[in-house]
Amino acid sequence: MRVLGIETSCDETAAAVVERDDQGHGHILSNVVLSQIDEHAPYGGVVPEIAARAHVEVLDRLIGQALHEAQITLDDVDAVAATAGPGLIGGLIVGLMTGKAIAMASQKPFYAINHLEGHALTPRLTDRIDFPYLLLLVSGGHTQMVLVKGLGDYERLGTTIDDALGEAFDKTAKLLGLPYPGGPEVEKAALLGDPSRFTLPRPLKGEERLDFSFSGLKTAVRQLATALEPLSQIDVNDICAAFQTAVADTLDDRVSRSLQRFRASFPDVKKPALVVAGGVAANKVLRDGLQRLCSDNGFRFIAPPMALCTDNAAMIAWAGAERAGLTPADSLDVAPRSRWPL
Ligand code: KG4
Ligand code: ZN
Predict the structure, then answer these.
(1) Strand 153-159 to 143-150 pairing
(2) Whether residues 273 and 195 fall in one domain
(3) Residues with CB under 5 A from ligand 2 (ion)
(4) Is 13 domain-assigned?
(5) What is the DSSP string of 278-306?
């Protein structure tokens, strides 16, 4: 079973072909991603209109490239899967309509995929892990702790009540005059800074609920930066170090509670797993902290390769491949949804 996947929900245009073999294992035949970062960088964030136009301009070519790299033609594809939400509506329309058109013209089944389900199922493609497991999704648009119980069976344990974590990194970077995307810049500056010079808040730390909150942290950075004006490079480094430490500490608190919750729900699972996904998972300090937390609590820590942690179409194709044969294909009437909780 070979599935062509299409992803256009944010600022990456992506197409991929994934094969699922008779044992149910996945193989990536091609995975093409074109990032629009350069087009959005002058604005310090993703501009929806620019994103939608950029998807239109390159998607056809990327699909052709994905088929070419997989050394197949459309005839060799068994199903088409495209992201239908959540995300920026203009981009979603481009990818969903393209996917439907290809499915209709080639008379293949079509799967409208929830982008979050794509992230949630990725470790089954990369690490062939079994249900159930925990997923921490931390990207520019999402911050969620999800209990992945089975295909189509997801329970959101917690989410952000304000900014996504990547967004908090990006906004902090912008406040400090660092370029977009801010995550890697903040991480670099933090390496050179003194984390003990400033103490920033740890939002929701100690609370029973498993939600996240980051806007208070960003506001504290703004107040600190204003008080210190004009900022020296040392100030910037020290603020970044304080910010990253506060984030690591907050994640530690929220995630350790989630691990306990998992244990309580699934006492029979011998070696449970925590999977991280999303661009923020590239952060080494945060990753190391999560890894430590997992080993202290008897959890496996799974971080798929970065190219499959950030937005891509292989995860969308794989979600389609997992669904094919188990759930009916979607109707071509399906509409894009900018909001679509798992
Ligand atoms: O999953 P992703 O590539 O795409 C979307 O959210 O669309 O995530 C991008 C986010 C950005 O906010 C970026 O600043 C953040 O991930 N990010 C990082 C790092 N690398 C990327 N955040 C913290 N540390 C990093 N090293
Ligand atoms: Zn994503």
Answers:
(1) antiparallel
(2) yes
(3) 139, 311
(4) yes
(5) SGGGG-HHHHHHHHHHHHHTT-EEE---H
Does the pTM surpass 0.90? The reply is yes
> Do 49 and 170 reside in the same domain of the chain?
no
**Is residue 7 in contact with ligand 1, taking CB distance under 6 Å?**
no
Instruction: List pLDDT tens digits, range 165-200.
Output: 999 999 999 999 999 899 999 999 999 999 999 999
Task: Please give the residue range of the domain that contains residue 298.
Answer: 133-303
Q: E strands within 77-151?
A: 79-85, 110-114, 133-138, 143-150
Judge whether 290 lies within some domain.
yes
Closest listed residue to residue 322, CA positions, set 113, 104, 12 = 113
CATH number of the domain where residue 290 is located = 3.30.420.40
Domain identity same for 102 and 242: no
119 annotated ligand-binding residue: yes
- Which distant-in-sequence residues (6+ apart) come within 8 Å of 323 by Cβ? 81, 111, 151, 152
Asked whether the beta carbons of 190 and 241 are under 8 A apart, the reply is yes
Ligand 1 pocket residue status of 310, Cβ below 6 Å: yes
pLDDT digits (tens, 9 = 90+) for 211-257: 999 999 999 999 999 999 999 999 999 999 999 999 999 999 999 99
pLDDT tens figures, 56-75: 999 999 999 999 999 999 99
Of residues 80, 47, 53, the one with CA closest to residue 66: 80
